[in-house]
């Protein structure tokens, strides 16, 4: 085999050799553990209308994106053509035929260099001194099983860099001078994945993304969230987007806010499913190191993150209308429901607080009636604590406790605190707790009304006869005070 040239990726252990007259027949070789494996060869697309054109080594690059290896082929347009340069990405697999899967539309002509930063393809254009971003995970236009992608943003220059060096003035040993480095110069050499070397200055840089400064560059906030969720260490940037989205200064439609929640919760749900599958495999296998756990590297924004960083400060703002606060929280809850994610009680509690403070009592009742706000001990306790200052929600906590099978004691406590002792006894009978509740609490709550006290006392007296064979209370029940009150108030009157 005659080899024109070859490119090598040390990271993937893969060599791509060029053969044929036009140098566009490429043969991949995979190196692993001292062995060489020849993979399927493939023919790269080049300009067919120029017979003398050959594929150059500088126009071929090996890129690793989302744990997969691609061969990037830069296709130049024919001279005097209105077409622009394209970068075709061919997926390289060990056991499958190599095929073209993506085409990046660069929108310019001339010399390019390429870097990979956080799974983004960054195309550096020397003539315009700008760079473009491409993300193969984001949607594009599909044609004949090939996805065509445009740059995510308008071409942007790399942030200027000041090189500090000792001053030429020999009288000062500590004096430093700042030199502005010439960007996109001809002396640059670009290495994979994100290394740039200036051969003249003798400097090397790593290219990085500053995610928190990219928010204002995207016109569509939902695309921005998609972009950020695919980046590493982007949680703070995602939370910043959420803060801006619900800020009244930005005036984003509630439908777009709902779309942002949907994208965040889709990743949240995927992570939960992946973690559950991982735990299940770990329980059934003795060797867990071979079980993939890449999902643990994902950026996941869960309910705790949004509550602490976004929703709670948002709910405390006096500049935001209560109705808007409620709408945002309901959209978030609806999104969690749609993905069948269990909702933490503090999310419901925040919604209840916003409804009550805004005086939306009827809406609160409807949301509870239709189970938008799920029953929980925490929410019921919050409703009970708010009843004194907001009488119109009186009874909502009691109704919620009654619907939960494990909250009988809370129902009894509420009824007794409201001096509804007879109602409490009826409830005790209905749930089969007549022989279990302490008589002291009921007798104490009925002391304000003689007739009620008498009836309650007779109820527990009958219980004592049934359980103990005598009407008196045992010493363990600590009811001497109420026995004396009964004798003094009722038995003495009969003797007289």
UniProtKB/TrEMBL annotation:
InterPro entries: RMC1 (IPR040371), RMC1_C (IPR009755)
Top-rank lineage group of the source organism: Eukaryota
Pfam families given in the database record: RMC1_C (PF07035)
GO biological process: regulation of autophagy
Segments forming domain Mic1: 231-474
A single Gene Ontology CC term: late endosome membrane
Matching PANTHER family: COLON CANCER-ASSOCIATED PROTEIN MIC1 (PTHR12897), REGULATOR OF MON1-CCZ1 COMPLEX (PTHR12897:SF4)
Protein name, UniProt field: Uncharacterized protein C18orf8 homolog
Source organism: Phallusia mammillata
Gene name, Swiss-Prot/TrEMBL: Rmc1
